[in-house]
Amino acid sequence: MATFLYKLGRLAFRRRHFVALIWVALLTLAGVGAASAPAAGNTSFSIPGTEAQKAFDLLEQRFPGMSADGATARVVFKAPQGEKMTDAVNKATVEKTVKELRSGSEVASVADPYTGHAVSKNGTIAYASVKYGASGMELEDSSKDALKHAAQDARDAGLTVEIGGDALSAAPETGSSEIIGIAIAAVVLVITFGSLLAAGFPLLTAIIGVGIGVSAITALASALDLGTTTSTLASMIGLAVGIDYALFIVSRYRAELAEGREREDAAGRAVGTAGSAVVFAGLTVVIALVGLSVVNIPMLTKMGVAAAGTVAIAVLIALTMIPALLGYAGRRIRPAGQKSRLLGGGRTPKKPGRPNMGTRWASFVVRRPVAVLLLGVLGLGAAAIPAASLELGLPDDGSQPASTTQRRAYDLLSEGFGPGFNGPLMIVVDAKDSADPKAAFREVGDEIKGLKDVVTVTPATPNKAGDTATITVVPGSKPSSTTTEDLVHAIRDKGADIARTTDSKVLVTGSTAMNIDVSQKLNDALLPYLALVVGLAFLLLIVVFRSILVPLKAALGFLLSVMAALGAVVAVFQWGWLSGLLNVEETGPVMSMMPIFMVGVVFGLAMDYEVFLVTRMREAYVHGEKPSQAVVTGFRHGARVVTAAAVIMIAVFSGFIGSSESMIKMIGFGLAIAVFFDAFLVRMAIVPAVLALLGKRAWWLPKWLDRALPNVDVEGEGLRAHADREDEKELVRA
User: Which of 188, 288, 180 is nearest to 243 (CA)?
Assistant: First the structure.
């Protein structure tokens, strides 16, 4: 592979006009496709195989026009101090608001608080339930504006009015997080390269790659039912890996120049060596992202595949456009160790020949591997302790910032009707095969009333055929509590008993039950996903490093860093540690998608650093250095680049901590702290310590396996043979 990539790098360097034209054409084509593509709404949300989804599908069949998955809104009214909602003036205001709400084109129904018993016992709080024909993700902006306008009219009349439910759901805003991440990345690149031009190449190619990827996603959004979250994830990961991959190749190019090579040859060697690491690092990211399909949540699968496509584009751009840009730059890109004149180049170094920081650190670790290993493992182990208390759930309006109308509506409903009122359960009774459907409906209601933590059970509401009915159950605890989850399981257990005596099926659904089912599905998929991703990447790394212990160490180190990161997430978002510093307003269960999402994204990114750093060590070892010296050599050439790449990645993810959405804030914090743990504690400390202790055994591979594995030549050994053949040809011609 190294020889092929070497030739590709030289070709791109020589034919730079052609290469640049291809990428500009692709960017233009993707942009035109995105601009001319039909507008697409947010992706539909379904969870195949869950009981809550089966109930939704049954409701669509038995209650046509009900829009079981349609958006809902609860317009909550509170009377002024000393007044009640039953007072004539307040009642007239509410009735006017209800009339205004019913005029919406997408509104399916509006329940009047006074006819629907939706006034609190003390008479100070009431609510109107609004049901829409479209889901919250597909609701038109005009319907949302009409809802807000109706609420504002009631406020102007003197009432406190807030809106809960998913009707006002919108894509989370992260402000200027991406711009901040790019700005920090630019500063880090300038410091790393000592050149504005060299620093600009990784930024330029990353932006072009993300532009092509996101534009392609936008162009295909309508046809493939892709939502805004898909492009957000693709841009976040594509930007991070795009900068990293280009950084690796530009850094190696400058190192080759420092060894006295001609620029075209240096570009070829940079792509042949660092480019090989980029290819395999990219493959691990792609495996991790595509592997999300094992969860069997369509939206998550599409997000993973789209992000994987953007990563593949980042790899191709790094291998072709970077050498082309280096060809354009010519002598303005200086060898490693030299700065541009603008940044202080040309000065005589104060201490010539002094080892760099990476060399000094690696030498220290090699001298004291046991102490470094113990400190690293114990530190990460201590950080991982809170993960033992991990509770999973999905965010609801109760986790929204206190400044939002959804959160204020949530609090008003809890105040007037109890905390469980924000998460009612919908029981669907399928009595199509029952001899007496009405008796089955009554028995289900009676059985549920006797369960613990049940506050209210409404009478059954049958469909026109009389073979299916819905029952609403209001728990006594808030939706995200474990008590409510226990109630859902208790109803399902009771439903299994009822099914045997009445020949009917009892299904529990609603947003609360759906959240519980999603959390369970993600939890069940975590181990298979982990086995698939780590297993495939382990096999891939065996091919790359031609070793058993090095890939095993890489996988174990990753698991340690992920557990430590999950521990940090639990400590902050579940226990409340440092919550004030990070502006976490509400603590509670960790988002159920967080563990599997963190495993997928961080594993791929962590393997970037592993491949780039350890391939340098492998290269030095293959070329004759002792194992301990190879570790130092790998750090001398790679530590600065890996450090810069990790800082850039942390900066990009940390920008999302400032989001007002608790879910985005949690993802940003979790990914940033995971990259910090993995890059600086695992790859920079534990990895060299383990390799120093193992010595030659680290690179051991059974002979039969060595013969069976393909030789991908990541360390560039084939380049020497290729160079020798070229020299022989020159001598013959001479």
Answer: 188
Nearest to 61 by CA among 491, 458, 507: 507
Phi, psi of 74 (to 5 degrees): -115, 110
Which token pair is 342? 């603008």
- Would you say 483 and 451 are in contact if contact means Cβ atoms under 8 Å apart? no
Structure confidence at residue 338 (pLDDT) = 63
Residue with tokens 């957000």: 232
If DSSP codes are grouped into helix, strand and coil, which group holds residue 390? coil
Place of tokens 């930024």: 203
pLDDT digits (tens, 9 = 90+) for 652-665: 778 777 766 677 78
Statement: residue 132 has pLDDT above 90: no
Hey, which residues does 590 pair with through a beta bridge? 392
Beta-strand runs (E) in 98-184: 107-111, 125-132, 160-165
Distance (Å, whole) CA 617 – CA 631: 5
The owner of tokens 């500063």 is: 187
Residue 419 and residue 606 in contact, taking contact as beta carbons nearer than 8 Å? no
Closest CA to 553 of 689, 704, 677: 689
What is the total residue count of the chain?
734
Give the three-state DSSP class for 391: coil
Q: What is the mean pLDDT of the chain?
A: 82
pLDDT tens-digit series, residues 35-53: 887 655 544 556 777 888 8
For residues 578 and 370, the model is more confident at 370
Q: How far apart are alpha carbons 213 and 284 in whole angstroms? A: 19
Reported confidence tier of residue 346, pLDDT bands at 50, 70, 90:
very low
> Cα(329)–Cα(202) distance, rounded to whole angstroms?
13
